[in-house]
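Technical note accompanying the year-one report. For the benefit of new consortium partners, we illustrate the data format agreed upon in the data management plan: each record pairs a sequence with a structure-token string. No post-processing was applied to the example shown here.
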Amino acid sequence: MPRPNEKIGDYTFIKKLGKGQFGTVWLAEKERLDGRVKMEVAVKFVNDDSADFEKVAEEAKVWAKANGHTNVLTFYNVEMLDGQIVLVSEYARDRSLLEWIDEKKGGFLELEPVLRIVCGVLSGLEHLHSKKILHRDVKPANILLNGETPKLADFGISRVLRSTVLANDSLVAGTPAYMSPEAYANNRDFRSDIWSIGILLYQMLTNRLPFLGTNAVEMMAAIITQPPAPLPSEMHSELKEIIFCALDKDINKRYQSAQEMRQALERFLVKLNRPNSNVKLEVYPFQTVELSNTGKLTRHLENSARCFIENLGNNVQLVLTEIEGGDFLIGASEGEVGAPENEKPQHKIAIKTFFLSKFPITQAEWKAVMQTTPAHFKGDNLPVEQISWNDAVEFCQVLSQKTGREYYLPSEAQWEYAARAKAITPFAFGHNINPEIVNYDGNYPYGFMGRGEYRAKTSSVGSLGVANAFGLYDMHGNVFEWCQDVYHSNYKGIPTNGQAWRVGGDNNYRVIRGGAWSSDALSCRSAARNRRKADLTANNVGFRVACSIKQQI
């Protein structure tokens, strides 16, 4: 075991962070390959001498598979160091959730911070489950905090280490107080992790567990046979329902996904922060055009759209445009030039009225919500880019908490409906586009359009002066935009109600739409779709946000 300031291999050990059943964790600095910059990491020394390195390394691959999400602790490496197995991971600067709870014993914890933390944990679980990974041991000690940003840790690894301690595998893969009834029968699935979240939420709000026992056997008996202890009478009835739904012993009556439970909690947070979420709608004028198949202007139109304005502070306003619902055909028509197979077959989709940001999210809006400026091309009114899908989802979560309204990435169906703005042509403006009204690479035109300007960078949102018929700007070109959906190679089986398509497909990828400053015109069509890994960033990928609210006219 190292001592403070001792260097072993590539690591200089700073201080001991803690000791648990399976290992001792140290804060260390690791030298990078360039030798100039050091990286803080957490190094766990496995204290089980009988642990098999190959088995631990194999299980570590499961953890590494989940890298790339804000609410999952990043895993770096497993290796032998000073004769012991060590697990090297991201260093969470704050403390474990267990320590956070212990600090606040003696009454209710503050409700909003608790719900924000639990929503973050559920977001991390969504990511794990999308990778077909069960956590198996969700508990406060396995949730680390950076401020109030929770990070799931220690899934997979502890299962291997426990097997040398306990013989009964139904008790091995989990901690008795947080295990579901079916887990004791070794019959768990993703909904078993939901049960653990129910226990966690109950504990954080009451400073006690819903099932009690002096040992694992008594705990198991209580969980299998007894109802959870009553919640305080003063607790909001809707919050009680959420907790008891997560703790339903019938796995089919429990929340069926981490996303479903997170959305229920976020809806409750909205009501908690702003019981009356009605908004006053305003009207703004805009100009749109129609173009010929050679990209020439054939018609100039004046129109108006309804919107509401979200004040983000520091004189930054986010404008949300009303998109009236209706039916449309998603995908490219059979005669659409250049349309690949991933845009087919067409399907009729019913869209409910929703609101979508008038522009791609700008750097000023991002900074007002997230206090950072990640973009490559700098400018308050330029679209924010260098944003991963995970980053965009986190922005929506923080914005929802900040405003008391539920914001989310549009589904792919919502996005295309909004981009088309009732048009059935390849573009909202007709059969073609030109660089005067769309920021794309004019060296690669569409159809009969001649070559045109290539700006080689983003342009200020709305600066080209033309919106589509819904009053939305930059739906074609400027930056690609993230959608909620998991990427599917075609539209066979897409939901017909406009909701995001999150089952099946390739969970490693999310959908991006709309083309960018760097794209050819073909990629800017309303039906054009592409894919990108959820944790990757680029200087041509941004996003816009959607919201569903009641309207006060």
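Partners are asked to follow this layout when depositing records. The two ends are 68 Å apart (CA to CA).
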